[in-house]
Each structure stands twice: as structure tokens, then as C-alpha cells.
Predict the structure.
Amino acid sequence: MKKIFATILLFTFTSLFAQHAVIPGDTIFETKYIQPERYQMKWYIVQEGNKHEVARINTSIQPGKYKIAIVNDIDVNNAKTTWIDSTITLRSNLSPIRHYSDNLERAVKLKFGASVTGSYNDKIQKKEVKVNEEVAAGKYFDSNFFPYLVRLLPYKDGYTKEITTYDYHPAKKGIVIQKIMDVKSGTYRNKNGLNLVWIVTTMETIKGITSQVKYYIDKSDRKIFKQEIFDGQLNTLIERSE
């Protein structure tokens, strides 16, 4: 009897304190930080401590009454055309509506609803794949929205969280759990002085590749200053232009 009671107690304790993966509609997000923004980030490859600039990312965040649109125009060195990446979400619960991405390697069009539909055009292989996947609506965020989503969490030192996202790549697609591994207070210096920031360490899987990412996020207004990305082989730095 004591053994049965201990088992029930353990199950109850685990159920109460287990961390569920966040989905659209959860009320933890600090939506007061959703504001119109326009800014540029510089994209670097880091080798042996040296930075090599490869692109500029121009971001426009446009919150409307019902939707949030995030558009990235990416100016890549020696590229003849600008890369485009856009994500639209529902403002009320941050669930995905549409995603569009077009670069030298591929073009992706996704529409989210009762199922995920659209197309994936591999420009290298000259092959287009039609997308039609049944995924429970309202139970995930667009993985492309995740870098913005991390700016809206209620941080404190030692904070952790799991976020449910959907990611598409022909080799690997479906629900992916992105993880906030650690949060600590820190500083970031730019031309305006020393800024108090949250340093947010995540483990993210995008297009089948798992990377550790560190975000440097202003504590006062959740402005993003910097991302440090390591995918197991390559170190990448994305830093806000002064």
C-alpha cells in the first residue's frame, strides 16, 4: 500500500511541476513589447577569431490590429538578387498564418491552417515539392517566427522553457520542440553606451540542423542586439548595425 501511495505521489508531483511545451494562446508572452521596428543586422562568419561579413539583414516588423508581419530583406555579398523572408502570424495568439522565403537555393511558400499547404522549390536540384501535411492547427508556432518569439518571454535568471514549432524541409519536417536552455543577466556595449541585457541560450532545430544560439536582448524594450550561432561546425554572428 505504501508503495502504491508513493507511486501516486510521485506521479502527482511530476504532473504538477513538469514543464509543458508552450503553444499559441499561452498567456506567458509579454506582448507589450510588440512594437513597429525597422533595423539592420550584419551577418558574419567567424573563423579563428576573425569576422567576415557576408550579408546585411534588413528587418521590418509591422504589427497590425489582427496580424504581425515580419519581413527580412537579406543583401548577400555577390548575390544578384536580394533574399526575401517573410512571416505572418495572428496577433491575438501568435499562431502562424503564412510564410514565404526566396533565396538562391530554394523558394518556400507555406500556408498554415487545418493543414500545412504550399510548395518547396529546390533551385539547385530543379525540383518542386508540393506541401500538404496534416498538423493540428493552433498547436505550434512557425519556426521562422521563433527568433522574434524569444524576445517576448518573461525572463529571469535561470529561466528555461520549451516552445512547440513547425518546421519544413523535404528531408525533415513536422513539429519541433525548441528549447530555452538558460537565461542570465549581462551587458552589451554599443555607441550609445552599456546596455543591460538578457543573454538567452537556446537549442534550436531548423531545417534539420540543430544549433546553439545565444541572443543578447535589451531588458528595457527587448531590442535584439546580437545572435551567436554554432551548428557544430560553423560559428556565425549576427549583430545589430550601429
